[in-house]
């Protein structure tokens, strides 16, 4: 198991360094997704499968997709061939190779451990839920206030005077 | 297990309640929102401030995640007073045409950061501390970018959010090391198993760096001047007084409780950073022409002085830090209040514009002078006693050299505070700022500051009150 852990950690560190050193935002995001996946494997190996799943669903899934959408939309109409340039094989071959290694690690780890429920040390969704709504109830409530403040702030920053046409359709 | 135990969270509950009331009121009030919301919010918050002073026991809730005692209660009250003054001072500015449609956001964001600060100060574990800290910083960034039409304001917002995200990251790294070495995130547990191992020292340094960002201690101060200059004046004064105050309070609590076992180590860290902060803050403040930047650097050097009170690690130090913060709130808000009153009227923020202010606006310049004297620490006004107690606390801990450096820095700071006073009283100007009459709210804010500076200076029982209330001595 230790070997798997170190492989996943190495991939996480490598891809994070790559993510912050890329010049192209899309490539950086590709590595960032990989880093998040690697971290999620680390969580899994540390017997926290629920957090690992959350990491994939929320970070690698939802947030990264949002990021990529934003980056791609910001450059709308500037260059038609942008997509081709971004996605040439040289750029995605290393991330996908590393992601493949992660997949193998995950499979091996799964087959070693057996099914999830048998492993007593694992922290399962039920326990997470119980501790969130008993021990850490106060933290959850304050996080709620934080989200509310965030929504108000975001509304405040992004609200603008009513316009008839969308800004993309305006004539420059 | 009755519901009355939740009264221990009175400050936070009351604040949450009025935040929600304002949120709903914003929806319900028809017509000119801004005219009704502003006094409504101020009155609500005034009630909250008064309620905060009612006596309250001590104890902890939620298995030690939330704790409160006399000292923490006083800290929250000090912050409340500051926020009340800021609300009153920002009344006029919020009435401006471009701000009218978003008045309630200002109050909502400010109040939610205050909730965050209160929770942060009473936190009993690192998780609560961190959530409170985030709640205290993130809304502030959107407040700093409040004037969306101005580029500088947007720049201030993005600078604030980026630097605070970085500092939070560094701090979390430190906290994770503490968790790794002690196996707990509860302050009481962590304090028991600290023994200054190398990793724990590193953890403290990381944690300290994160806090130093918030208090703007010198190697981590670079964001301060830009953000202070770009943000609207009300937000700037909030950042320089309330945000800084809350960070100072939780930091002093942590140093005295959690990191008690590492006292010798953090004294070294505080020593170096305090000398650097005082000196560099002062030297940069001298060169500033813009008064907001000037006050930013002055507030950096004040943070260095606050460290003098902490470094002794004694009870007197804690009391004097709270006392100094109270005085600092009045003095700094007095100075910001004058700057804001003049900027609202004329849009002028530079020191040269203040030439000959005394001839046209004697009252304003008199108040500005008292506030600056108080910041510098000249005897009759409160600032002197604040600094005096800080120095005493450091001397009691045996840091005579540091006290000497502090006194020298006070003299340097006197120079640039007097530059502003000289501009107002002695310099002649062809085109002085014309005489103007401020409206009631601005005046009320200034009068409270003035009364605060004089009152806390002349009546020593304020210090005794803090001491007795906090420690029951």
* Percent in strands of chain A: under 5%
| Radius of gyration computed on alpha carbons of chain B | 21 Å
Uncertain regions of chain B: pLDDT < 50 for 5+ in a row?
Answer: none
Give the name of the CATH superfamily of the largest domain in chain A: NADH-ubiquinone/plastoquinone oxidoreductase chain 6, subunit NuoJ
Strand content of chain B: under 5%
What does this structure look like?
The complex is a heterodimer of chains A (172) and B (473). Chain A has 172 residues and is an all-alpha fold. Chain A is built from seven helices and no strands. Chain A has two domains: 2-119, Four Helix Bundle (Hemerythrin (Met), subunit A), CATH 1.20.120; 123-172. The longest helix of chain A is centred in the middle third of the chain and has 26 residues, at 49-74. The N and C termini of chain A lie far apart (59 Å). Chain B is 76% helix and 1% strand. Chain B has 20 helices and two strands. Chain B has a two-stranded antiparallel sheet. Chain B is globular. The mean pLDDT of chain B is 86. Chains A and B meet through α7 of A and α5 and α6 of B.
């Amino acid at each position: 198991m230790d070997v798997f852990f170190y492989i996943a950690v190495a991939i996480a560190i490598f891809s994070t360094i790559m993510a912050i050193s890329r010049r192209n935002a899309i490539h950086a995001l590709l590595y960032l997704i990989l880093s998040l996946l690697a971290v999620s494997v680390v969580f899994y190996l540390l017997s926290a499968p629920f957090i690992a799943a959350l990491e994939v669903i929320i970070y690698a899934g939802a947030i990264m997709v949002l990021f990529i959408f934003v980056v791609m939309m910001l450059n709308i109409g500037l260059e038609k061939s942008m997509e081709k340039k971004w996605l040439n094989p040289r750029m995605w071959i290393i991330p996908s190779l590393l992601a493949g290694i992660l997949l193998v690690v995950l499979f091996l780890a799964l087959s070693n451990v057996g099914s999830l429920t048998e492993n007593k040390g694992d922290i399962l969704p039920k326990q997470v839920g119980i501790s969130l709504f008993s021990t850490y109830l106060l933290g959850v409530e304050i996080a709620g206030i934080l989200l509310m403040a965030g929504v108000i702030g975001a509304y405040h920053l992004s609200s603008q005077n009513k316009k008839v046409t969308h800004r993309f359709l305006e004539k420059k | 297990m009755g519901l009355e135990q939740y009264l221990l969270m009175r400050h936070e509950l009351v604040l949450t309640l009025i935040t929600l009331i304002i949120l709903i009121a914003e929806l319900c009030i028809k017509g000119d929102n801004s005219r009704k919301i502003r006094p409504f919010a101020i009155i609500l918050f005034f009630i909250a401030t008064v309620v905060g002073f009612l006596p309250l026991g001590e104890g902890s809730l939620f298995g030690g995640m939330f704790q409160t005692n006399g000292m923490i209660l006083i800290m929250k009250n000090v912050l409340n007073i500051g926020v009340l003054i800021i609300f009153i001072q920002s009344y006029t500015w919020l009435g401006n045409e471009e701000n009218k449609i978003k008045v309630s956001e200002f109050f909502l964001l400010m109040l939610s950061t205050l909730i965050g600060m209160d929770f942060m100060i009473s936190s009993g574990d690192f998780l609560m501390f961190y959530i409170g800290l985030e709640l205290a910083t993130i809304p502030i960034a959107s407040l700093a970018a409040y004037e969306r039409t101005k580029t500088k304001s947007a720049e201030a917002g993005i600078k604030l959010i980026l630097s605070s995200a970085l500092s939070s990251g560094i701090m979390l790294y430190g906290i994770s090391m503490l968790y790794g070495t002690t196996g707990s995130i509860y302050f009481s547990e962590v304090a028991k198993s600290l023994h200054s191992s190398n990793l724990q020292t590193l953890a403290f340094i990381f944690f300290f760096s994160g806090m130093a960002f918030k208090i703007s201690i010198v190697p981590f101060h670079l964001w301060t001047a830009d953000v202070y200059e770009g943000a609207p004046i009300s937000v700037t004064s909030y950042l320089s007084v309330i945000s800084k105050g809350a960070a100072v309070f939780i930091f002093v609590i942590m140093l005295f409780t959690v990191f008690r076992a590492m006292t010798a180590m953090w004294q070294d860290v505080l020593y170096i950073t305090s000398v650097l902060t005082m000196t560099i803050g002062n030297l940069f403040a001298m060169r500033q022409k813009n008064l907001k930047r000037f006050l930013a650097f002055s507030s950096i050097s004040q943070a260095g002085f606050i460290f003098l009170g902490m470094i002794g690690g004694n009870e007197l130090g804690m009391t004097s830090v709270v006392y100094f913060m109270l005085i600092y709130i009045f003095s700094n808000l007095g100075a910001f209040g004058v700057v804001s009153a003049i900027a609202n009227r004329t849009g002028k923020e530079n020191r040269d514009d203040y030439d000959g202010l005394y001839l046209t606006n004697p009252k304003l310049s008199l108040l500005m002078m008292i506030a600056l004297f108080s910041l510098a620490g000249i005897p009759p006004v409160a600032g002197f006693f604040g600094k005096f107690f800080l120095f005493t606390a450091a001397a009691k801990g045996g840091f005579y050299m540091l006290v000497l450096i502090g006194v020298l820095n006070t003299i340097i700071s006197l120079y640039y505070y007097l530059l502003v006073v000289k501009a107002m009283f002695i310099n002649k100007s062809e085109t002085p700022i014309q005489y103007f009459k401020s409206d009631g709210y601005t005046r009320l804010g200034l009068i409270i500051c003035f009364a605060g500076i004089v009152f806390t200076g002349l009546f020593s029982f304020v210090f005794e009150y803090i001491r007795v209330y906090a420690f029951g001595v």
